[in-house]
Amino acid sequence: MTSLTLFTPAGALARAGNLKRAAKRLAQFGFEVETDTDALARHQRFAGDDATRLAALHRIADAAPSIALATRGGYGMTRLLDQIDWARIARSVEHGTRWVGYSDLTALQNGFIARHKGLSMWAGPLACDDFGRSDAEGGVDEVTRDCFLEAMSGALEAVGFREPTGGFDGLEARGRLWGGNLTVLCSLLGTPHWPKVKGGILFLEDINEHPYRVERQLLQLQQAGVIDAQAAVLLGDFSGAAKSPLDRGYGIKDAVAALRARTKTPVLTGLPFGHIRTKVCLPVGGMVELYVQGREAIVGWQSDPRLAHAGHDHHDHHHH
Amino acid sequence: MTSLTLFTPAGALARAGNLKRAAKRLAQFGFEVETDTDALARHQRFAGDDATRLAALHRIADAAPSIALATRGGYGMTRLLDQIDWARIARSVEHGTRWVGYSDLTALQNGFIARHKGLSMWAGPLACDDFGRSDAEGGVDEVTRDCFLEAMSGALEAVGFREPTGGFDGLEARGRLWGGNLTVLCSLLGTPHWPKVKGGILFLEDINEHPYRVERQLLQLQQAGVIDAQAAVLLGDFSGAAKSPLDRGYGIKDAVAALRARTKTPVLTGLPFGHIRTKVCLPVGGMVELYVQGREAIVGWQSDPRLAHAGHDHHDHHHH
CA angle, B77 as apex, B75 and B78 as ends, to 5°? Predict the structure, then answer.
C-alpha cells in the first residue's frame, strides 16, 4: 500500500468533517492514510503556532511517506520559510516522498526548488478542497482525482489542454517547471526563497484577485526580468474577483494583453490549474517539454524512471 | 501666486464633479490652479491609455508648476515606470516642482528616488479624494488641508503623532524617508524601480488589505533584508479589510507583532497617513529625523532652505 500523510501547514481547518471525508475517500482510492497529529491544531487563524506547523513539516519529512498531501492552503507558509530545514525536506524527496498541494503551498514548493535543483514537489490538489467535499458541496472532480492518482503512481507523464488563441501553433519549449499561485509566488521576490529559474516554464494562477492586481504582479515579474528569462509562461485560472463599475470593459484579457505587449516570451492561457474544481498535477521543479499543435498544448515530462524500467503503463492526461 | 497643476496619472475619474470642486477649493486656498488637458481622459479603467498618461507626466514636468497634484490613485502608474523619462521629472523637481499624492503615486515617488538621491516628492493628499468631496461626502479635513498648505509653502518642517505603545521612549533615528502604500511598494521589489535605501525611515500604509495580506508583505520585506536595513519603520493606517470568520482573533496587531518578532528595527505605529481623511505630508526621499519622547513621536526635516534664509515662519504639525 502507498502511504499518504495529511497535514495542515498554513491556515486552520474550520471543520473536522471535510478532513475525515477526505481521509476516507483517499483510503477508498487505495492509500494507507495517516493524519498528522496536529492537522486540526488551531492558533489564531493558523493550524497551530509557527513552531507547531514547522515541527509537523519536519516530522513528515523524517517519516518520508510516499505522499505528503496538504489539507488546505490559506496563509501561513511564508511565516515558516526562514526556519525550514530544507535539507531535511530534501532527504524525504530523495527518499521518494511526493509533497502535494497548491495555493499557499506555492511558497513551500518554490522555496524548496530555490535550494534543491533537480528535485521536485507536486502542484496538485489539496485534500479538503478537492477530496473532502460532501456531495452537496460538489463531491470529487473525476479528472482531478484521476490525474492525482496517475501522478502519485508515477505513471503520469503529460497533461494537455486547449490553448484558446491558436496563436502558438508549432511552439516547442523545454525548461524547468515552476510557479503556482501568483500572489504567493510574488511574495517570495527579493527573498532567499525565490527560485532564480532561467529558461524555465512558469505557470501561474490566482483566485479572488481583481484583473488589475493580477496585471500589477505580472508586470512586476516582467519588470524584474523574470518573464523575459522564461521559455514560456502558462496561465491557469484567474477567477473569483468581483467586477468594479470602474472597469469599463477592462478584464483579465486586458491584463494578459498588457503582459504580452511587454515580452517576447510566449504567454499561453488555458492551463487547467488553479482554485477551480478541475485541476491537473504538475511537477514543480521538474524538467518539462511544452508542445503546441494548433490549439492543443501538451506539457510533458519523463515519468518516474523506476516505474519506466518496470514497464508500468504511462499516461497523458487531457482536459478540455 | 503659486501655480498648481492637477493631473490623473492612473485610474480614470468616475465623475468630473469632484475634480471641479477640488479645483475650486484649491483656488480658494490661494493657488493658481490649472487642470491638465487629459485629467478626465478615459481608456478602460485608466485615465487615458499609457501613452496619454505618460505624455501628461512629461508635459507637467516640462511646465514645472510649483505643485503637481494628482487627482486620484487607483492603478496605472506601474504600467508607465519603464517608459518614464526620469531625468525630465528630476529637472522639474530641481526647478522647484512639488509632486504630491499617495496610494498608486507610491510607484512614481519611489521609482523617482530610486534614481535621484537627494531629491524628493511629497506623500500627501490627492485632489479629488481630499479636496473634492462635497459636504455630504465629508468635505475637507482641516488637518489635511493645513498640513498640505504648510508643506506646499515650504514652511512645514515636522509632523508629530501619538505612538500608542509607549515602548519607544528615547528613540532617535535619522535617515532617508521612503515608502508609502505597502502593496504598491512591494510591486516594485526586484525591479529597477526599487529604491535600495539603507538606514532609512520606511513608512507604510494600506487600504482594504486583510491583516494576513499585510503581514505577508511585511514579512516579504523582512525576508528580503529591507526591514533590518532600516533605522525605523513607521506604520500608518491599515484599515478597510473585511474580517473573516477564520480570523479567530487574528488582526493587524498580530501582523505587526509577527514583524516585530523578526527584526530589531523599531516598528512604530500611529503615523497619521494612509487612505484616511486626516493625513500629513511627508517628503519621500528627504532626510528626516525621528524622535520619540514617551508616546510623542516627531518626524522632522529641514524645511526649504530658501525659505529658511528668508526668515519664514516654520511649523510643525501635531496630530493626535
Answer: 95
A77: Cα separation from own chain's centroid: 14
Identify whether the C-beta of residue A11 lies closer than 8 Å to the C-beta of residue A117: no
- Same domain for B78 and B174? no
Number of Cβ within 10 Å of residue A166's Cβ equals 10
CATH number of residue B73's parent domain: 3.40.50.10740
Nearest to B220 among A42, A44, A191 (CB): A191
Which of B114, B132, B156 is the last residue before a domain boundary? B156
Instruction: Say if the Cβ atoms of A12 and B248 lie within 8 Å.
Output: yes
Residue in the structure block whose three cell numbers are 525536506: A89
Claim to verify: residue B46 and residue B147 sit in the same structural domain: yes
pLDDT in tens, B225-283: 999 999 999 999 999 999 888 899 999 999 999 999 999 999 999 999 999 999 999 99
Whether B228 and B275 map to the same domain: the answer is yes
Unique residue bearing C-alpha cell 509607549: B166
Residue A203 contacts residue A234 (beta carbons within 8 Å): yes
The Cα A288–Cα A174 span in angstroms is 6
Q: Domain for residue B170, yes or no? A: yes
Establish if B68 touches chain A: CB-CB under 8 angstroms. no
A72 & A21 share domain: yes
Q: Are residues A108 and A184 in the same domain?
A: no
Residue B272 near residue B161, CB atoms below 8 Å: yes
B205: annotated active-site residue: yes
B32 catalytic, yes or no?
no
Same domain as B162, residue B152: no
Show Cβ contacts of residue B288 under 8 Å, excluding neighbours closer than 6 positions: B174, B175, B176, B177, B201, B282, B299, B300, B301
Q: Range of B171's domain?
A: 158-300
What's the whole-number mean pLDDT along residues A210-230? 98
Query: Which are the contacts of A133, defined by CB distance < 8 A and separation ≥ 6?
Result: A18, A21, A139, A140
Q: Considering the domain boundaries, does residue A310 fall inside one? A: no
Residues B43, B123 share a domain: yes
- Span A166-183, average pLDDT: 98
Residue B35 lies in a domain: yes
What is the pTM assigned to this prediction? Answer: 0.95
- Do B15 and B152 fall into the same domain? yes
Considering only CB atoms, A190 lies closest to which of B42, B220, B246, namely: B220
Close Cβ partners of B15 (under 8 Å, ≥ 6 residues apart): none
Minimum CA–CA partner of B47 in chain A: A246
Separation CA A207–CA A252 (nearest Å): 12
First to last CA, chain A: 32
Which pLDDT belongs to residue A311? 41
Provide the b/e sequence for B268-281 (b: ≥16 CB within 10 Å): bbbbbbbbebebbb
Active site residue A103: yes
Q: Does the distance separating the beta carbons of B219 and A44 come in below 8 Å? A: no
Q: What is the total count of domains within chain B?
A: 2
